Model the fold of this input.
Amino acid sequence: MNDPAPGADDPASSTDDPAAGADDAGLLPPTAPLPENHVDDAPRPLGVARVGSGDARVDGLLGRLGDLDELPVAEHQGVYEETHEGLRAVLAALDVAQGPPPPSAR
Done:
């Protein structure tokens, strides 16, 4: 009649233990409450609005950065490098189009 609740003497079933109810891989079921000290550091889109630069080449290169949300992290470096090289090429083309600076008056 005064039987303790099932699992009351079992330390693994304590609600203070965030691993209680974990499967063999140590993963909690999706409905399990998160531990009090849980930090949500999962990747997610930043939601930063991008304003056009006025140069279609630059806008295209920067638009590629928006693809990062859909790519595995291992592929991010390649996208950053491609974007950086593309932006450098656009800047170099602007320098060539303007020609050398005029001679300074002394």
Summary: Residues 22 and 30 are 10 Å apart (CA to CA). Helices lie at 56-65, 76-98.
